[in-house]
Amino acid sequence: MKRLVFLFLMTGGLIFAVPPLARAQDSGNHAEIGIFGDYFRLGATRGPSLAGTGATSFGGVGARLSINVSRRWQIEPEMNYDFAASFSEGFTGLSGTVEGFSTSRLRILHGMIGPKIQTGGGALRAFLTVKGGGDDFMFSSAPVTFSTFISSVSGLRASSVVGVLYPGGGIEAYLGPIGLRLDVGDEIYFQSGPHNNLRITIGPSIRF
């Protein structure tokens, strides 16, 4: 948990520290800000807080800020919230037999930061990224509202947070300052070993 808090403090520091470097690169392309929708396929889970089998698909929304370090390098903090998905959990007795099932509603808050390398600052470019951070797994029956998201962010300390590593890549296209970006990657969370999960995001962005 202390590592996650440190990560977000470091993110804030980078947001204020890196822009002076960006100004020296390109007066018309200092940074990018974007919103996106995401598809997250949570693989088979194990462990005391995420017991179950199979895979569960989530959808959500998020935002990211891409800060230019050079024409080909950026630093990106991002956060997104996946809405609740229902799935069945089995309960195994001492005899090893499944004694019953219940339905759980799971939500996930993702927070990551890392470098992005791209082919250049033109209208069409490809990129690769590697990010680290944390996922907050929450079981809740509360309605999905903006106030629920705020309480989820403020409740990080009291929730089940696990470390994540995200290698990925994609493409983005710009028409003037307005662009569209597609990311595909493997969001690996660590709980009793690594767990691989497909993550796809797409959405508009603005560069300035």
Q: Can you describe this structure?
A:
With 208 residues, the chain is mainly beta. The chain has a single domain, classed as Porin (Beta Barrel), CATH 2.40.160. The protein has three helices and ten strands; from the N terminus they run H-H-E-E-E-E-E-H-E-E-E-E-E. Strand 2 (56-68) and strand 3 form a beta hairpin.
Annotation keywords:
208 residues; mainly beta; Porin; eight-stranded antiparallel β-barrel; 3 helices; globular
Strand order of the largest sheet: 1-2-3-4-5-6-7-10
Cα(first) to Cα(last) distance is 34 Å
- Note poorly predicted spans: 1-26, 45-53, 98-102, 152-158
- The CATH architecture can be given as Beta Barrel
Helix vs. strand class: mainly beta
Would you tell me which CATH topology applies?
Answer: Porin
- Structural domain tally: 1
Apparent shape: globular
CATH class: Mainly Beta
Please write out the topology.
Layout: H1 2-17, H2 19-23, E1 31-42, E2 56-68, E3 73-92, E4 98-118, E5 124-139, H3 146-154, E6 160-175, E7 178-186, E8 188-190, E9 194-195, E10 198-207
Antiparallel strand pairs: 1-2, 1-10, 2-3, 3-4, 4-5, 5-6, 6-7, 6-8, 7-10, 8-9
Brief sketch in words of this structure:
The protein has an eight-stranded antiparallel beta barrel. It has a single domain, classed as Porin (Beta Barrel).
